[in-house]
Structure formats: structure tokens, C-alpha cells
Design brief:
Blueprint lengths: L3 H9 L6 E6 L1 H4 L5 H12 L4 E5 L12 E3 L9 H6 L6 E2 L7 E5 L2 H5 L14 H4 L6 E5 L8 H9 L4 E13 L1 E11 L3 E3 L4 H4 L5 E6 L2 E7 H14 L5 E3 L5
Parallel strand pairs: 1-2, 1-6, 3-7
Antiparallel strand pairs: 2-5, 4-5, 6-11, 7-8, 9-12, 10-11
Helix pairs in contact: 1-3, 7-9
Length: about 250
């Protein structure tokens, strides 16, 4: 018999074999279950043919002043579940100094292996953007749609006039061996991200709402979001942000 979390994930729209990138708040779940146990519950719900991905971003602790990124040692800076997931047995991590992604499951290697080819945070070879090729879904456990890293890749595709630095930063990337790579970084100076507007542009079944534990959750079809968001950005490149000081 499926457990309560699996039942809730199924009701939300998660199926065995899905490829899911999850933004998550352990606190929002309201459970005494350990982070490891919850992650294993999600992996079990996806089944042996599924794949779970979590952002493992390090933009706060890998910088121009601290340029070393170690795939095995550099902790994500964005929350408890990513910090636990990247150390779990069988999890692989994409090689990117500031916007790596960790993955477990059937498609983990395919989704992570080419990220090193990009020289921007969320380029076409990133797991975020490759998600679309696998019919992937974005799962938000808690009120986290406003933190949708996938949208940075859509902004890059659209060529928005904000978000990226003009200069490059040199990083040292370590994964057994070391390599040096110059990369473009994010620069949102004067810009406030308003990715919660995603909720206004999608409708069922491309977006689904439900609960997992005590958390309000959102499940989004990655291809549908990319298509719709690009349409809005073509009309207004600032649609998903506001400029600091202007009315929202």
C-alpha cells in the first residue's frame, strides 16, 4: 500500500517514470521524518525508471574571491534538502561552479553530464533546460514558485536585457581533476524577480496544485512553461521582473 506522501504526490500528478526537478522546503512539510527519508520517499514514488533532480546552487559560496567549486565537497547554499541530497549514495552532480544540479535515477547522467559545456548559469546544456527533452516537471514543495531557477534559462533563451554580467569570472572546477573555466554570472542589480507571475500564465493541466504533508505544492510541465513564458517575454522582456523602485 502506498504511503501518505506517495498518495499525495500521485494526486498532484507525479507518475512512475517521471523526470522531476524539485524545489523544496522541509519545514513546510511539517513532518518529523528525516530529510533523507523524505527524499527516499520521493525517489520511491518516481520508481526505477524515474529521475529526481534538485538544484545544488553555490552562488553564495563560489565567487570571484572564492573561485573553487568541488563537485564532491562544495555544499549547496539554498537549503537543507539540497545539502542532504548531494551527499546521498548514487547521486550525481553537474559540473557548474554556481548553478550545479544533483540527480538520482535512470536519466541522472544524461541530464547532468553536459552542463560543463555552458558558460552561463542556466544554458542550453544545463539540467534545467534539458528537462524539457525528457517531458520533465517542476515540483515546488512549499510556496517556492518565486524561486524557479528554470526561469533563468528561459530568460537566457529570450535574451532579456538584464540578468547576466558582461564580463567573465574565472572559476576552478574540481571533480577528481581540476580545470579552469571563465564563465558569465548573474547580475540582477536593480531587478527584483517576480517569478510568481508564472501562476498567472498557466492553467490546468500544465499547472497543478495540491498538498504534500502540510505543504502547499505546485507541479508544472516544463515544456508548457517554457513555451508560454517565451511568448510573454517576446512581448515584454521585463514581464517576470520589476525594476527596483517601480510599482509592482
Amino acid at each position: 500500500m502506498p504511503n501518505a506522501f506517495t498518495t499525495q504526490l500521485r494526486a498532484l500528478g507525479i507518475k512512475p517514470g517521471d523526470v522531476v526537478l524539485m524545489h523544496s522546503s522541509m519545514k513546510a512539510l511539517g513532518t518529523r521524518m528525516s530529510p533523507e527519508a523524505f527524499l527516499h520517499e520521493v525517489i520511491a514514488a518516481l520508481g526505477p525508471d524515474g529521475t529526481l533532480l534538485l538544484p545544488a546552487l553555490t552562488y553564495d559560496n563560489v565567487t570571484a574571491d572564492q573561485p573553487l567549486f568541488s563537485a564532491k565537497q562544495t555544499e549547496p547554499c539554498i537549503g537543507l534538502l539540497p545539502r542532504v541530497f548531494f551527499r546521498m549514495e548514487g547521486v550525481v552532480r553537474s559540473l557548474h561552479p554556481t548553478h550545479s544540479v544533483c540527480a538520482y535515477g535512470k536519466k541522472a547522467e544524461e541530464l547532468t553530464s553536459s552542463h560543463i559545456l555552458d558558460d552561463t548559469p542556466v544554458g542550453s546544456n544545463s539540467p534545467f533546460m534539458l528537462l524539457r527533452s525528457f517531458g520533465g516537471k517542476l515540483l515546488f514543495i512549499g510556496d517556492l514558485v518565486g524561486s524557479c531557477t528554470f526561469m533563468h534559462g528561459i530568460e537566457e533563451m529570450a535574451g532579456v536585457p538584464y540578468a547576466l554580467t558582461k564580463e567573465r569570472t574565472r572559476f576552478i572546477i574540481e571533480n577528481g581533476n581540476q580545470m579552469t573555466k571563465e564563465m558569465i554570472c548573474h547580475d540582477f542589480a536593480g531587478i527584483k524577480q517576480e517569478y510568481h507571475r508564472i501562476l498567472d500564465i498557466l492553467a490546468y493541466p500544465d499547472i497543478r496544485k495540491g498538498n504534500v504533508g502540510n505543504a502547499d505544492c505546485t507541479l508544472i510541465d516544463a515544456n508548457a512553461l517554457a513555451k508560454k513564458a517565451l511568448q510573454f517575454l517576446a512581448d515584454d522582456p521585463y514581464y517576470f521582473v520589476s525594476r527596483v523602485g517601480e510599482p509592482v
